[in-house]
Amino acid sequence: MMGKMREYTKGILYFLIVAFVALMVVEWGADYSGWSQRRQFVVGKVNGEEIDLELFNQAFRNARFSEEQRSGKNLTEEQLNSLRNQVWEQLVQRILLKKEIEKLNIQVTSEDVANYVRNGLYQQYQDNPNFQSDGKFDPKKVDEALADEANRQILLTMEAQAREELPYVKLQSLIYTSLFVTEQEIRDEFKQQNLKAKIEYLTVPLAAFADRKPETGEEEIRKYYEKNKEDFKNLEMRQLNYVYFSIVPTAADSAKIYHRAEEIKAQALAGKDFNALADAESEDPSAASNHGDLGYFERKDMVAEFSEAAFAAQPGEIVGPVKTNFGLHVIKVADKKTEDGVEKVRASHVLLKFEASANTLDEAQRQSGLFAETAREEGFAVAADQLKVEIKQTTEFANNKIGQIPGIGKIESALMWAFGSEKEAISDVYYTPQGYYIFQVANIKPEGYKPFEEVKEICQNRIDLEKRKAMAREYAEKFAGRVKAGENFQAIAQSDPDRILQADTTDYFGMNIFVPRIGRAPAITASAFNLPLNQPSGVLETERGCYFIKVKDRNQFDEEAFSSQREAIRNRLLQQKSRTVFTQWYEKLKEQAEIEDNRYRFFRG
């Protein structure tokens, strides 16, 4: 029993809690105690609470190790950038939630902890035969296991983790207090997923009027512009000058890495234990646990360059260095075999990544710092001239939530600086994995409306489109009487002297997908699932033209199937609502918070 209890411990605590809390506590492994002792390097602040460099880097290393262990691959630079941002967001979120718990004075009692652990175990062991009597779950057996002194340490561990989690569970419960799903919502969702219809249609395509030029005067266009002026609003825009000091590996850096790889290969060929070399030299995170041994793999499991070298070698052969997008590999092939007609190789490797040397990094940092200092004292252009660096310029851009600067990428803190600074202001040095940037505000275009002359053609095209839609509707109305009388759609289309009308029948389609051969047409979809069979509709307007429809076939609402799916649908809708409610609540909480992000000042990943 003790062994079974230990085996199932890992997943028990999280059965009630949403993933964001479990991820922050378990995956990042963040220690939030004793921050006041680690203030020398402050990465950021959240409502006055500091996130120091040690904490941030530890959380990032934990996350990176977990992700690379999960995928079995080294993360690309883009993935590492994304992961850094995820870690930052998780740390910010954790602090904000912790402060909200303190603000609401959420308390956890010993009884809360005991019930939480016990209920979690009950749910976890429902189908475990070790906790059943006469084929049914027996909660007494769980209680007996909890009372067993042999399981005491396991229980204490679970209780400690539960005590950490429960405040967040209680906060979550408060957020979701008024959350519910109505019976009608469940039925509507079932319909969306299960009902299908097939329709016959008669259409007046808008394209038939494409060559007709409506008469639209200057005054009419100007009135449209004034009425719809908000459509032509310009956001505040910025344009930046910038200089860039690269920290990508130089040719000399790459040559040193190649030289080191050749040295490692020579040591392996001389008889040095390959696993020991991997332990000492490999920059593959998995080497810490597998000593460089990749196990058996197929050709498709590895990047092409690696597979080509490994499968061409013989058992015992050492090959390389092999260059891939991960770096340089020295490979030792241990064995080859064929399973179910598939060739496999077992190999170990030592990975050396292409990274800039300390000298390259230091020189880029020194040069960028010197430029920033000179630029503030003597001007941006003067500094560029003295240090012989090129001044580049972005296109105009608006503020955006993702922190994107055109031509450069995502630097959220630099974007915030740009929209909080005056023209010709000079920034601090911003670090990215590609290098150091210093910016100057080159131009500011204030918020306002685009002038009439600039959007006149757009306004005219919109007016003309509405007039063509009116033409299509007017043309369709000429046939409305015949449609209402039940006349055959094909016959009506064939009798059209202008050959504009078209008739056809769709395949079956659902409520939440495009209508075949028509596209997205909410009015048609709504009619298809509400009209009686074979009863013609009135004129239905879409972006592609005007339609009459008749429902040829539609399956009925299946009460028995609905009953069997009802609870699953309810739970799914509840989860969707929960995610939406939490996201909205958290975004509001975050907007009201004072968040200072200083990662760019010293973070090198």
Structure description:
49% of the residues lie in helices and 20% in strands. By secondary structure, the protein is an alpha+beta fold. The protein folds into 4 domains: 2-177 and 588-602, no CATH class; 196-218 and 454-554, Roll (Chitinase A, domain 3), CATH 3.10.50.40; 236-248 and 358-446, Chitinase A, domain 3 (Roll); 251-352, Roll (Chitinase A, domain 3). Strands 5, 19, 20, 21 and 22 form a 5-stranded antiparallel beta sheet that branches. Strands 7, 12, 13, 16 and 17 form a 5-stranded antiparallel beta sheet that branches. Strands 8-11-10-9 form a 4-stranded antiparallel beta sheet. A hairpin with a 2-residue loop joins strand 3 and strand 4 (136-137). Helix 3 (53-71) crosses helix 4 (77-103) and helix 5 packs across helix 7. Residues 1-40 have low confidence and may be disordered.
Layout of helices and strands, plus pairs?
Layout: H1 2-12, H2 19-27, E1 42-46, E2 49-52, H3 53-71, H4 77-103, H5 110-124, E3 132-133, E4 136-137, H6 139-147, H7 152-175, H8 183-194, E5 196-205, H9 218-227, E6 233-234, E7 237-246, H10 251-269, H11 274-281, H12 287-290, E8 293-297, H13 304-312, E9 318-324, E10 327-339, E11 342-352, H14 358-378, H15 380-387, E12 392-393, E13 397-398, E14 404-405, E15 409-410, H16 412-418, E16 426-432, E17 435-445, E18 448-449, H17 452-477, H18 480-484, H19 489-495, E19 502-505, E20 509-510, H20 522-528, E21 540-542, E22 545-554, H21 559-592, E23 595-597, H22 599-602
Antiparallel strand pairs: 1-2, 1-23, 3-4, 5-19, 5-20, 5-22, 6-18, 7-12, 7-13, 7-17, 8-11, 9-10, 10-11, 14-15, 16-17, 21-22
